[in-house]
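chain below, 101 aa
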Amino acid sequence: MTETNEGMDAEQGDFLSREVVVSNEHGLHARPAGKLAQRAQGFTARIRIVHDEHEVDAKSILEVLTLAAGPGDVLEIRAMGDDAAQAVEALERLFHKRFDE
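prediction:
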């Protein structure tokens, strides 16, 4: 787990970043992707999920599904905004709980 506070670029400002591992047996399929997107929608922060070079909006189940993240894959959660720290913590907990599967 890493946490950084780096600039995405001059226009976007600072963001928080945390690496998580997909540890549930079937990866980030529809049900966990839905839980992730639903939880992310509860925050005002801009939240992105990165897998390799593919970056998607964490608030969109369809975009999260395009990551095709499987068991053992390392993802990066990036959040920027007033409640970014809370958002990163909440999403990290979902991964640690294996989305209750």
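The chain has one domain: 3-100. The beta strands are 3-9, 13-21, 46-51, 54-57, 74-80.
thats it, cya
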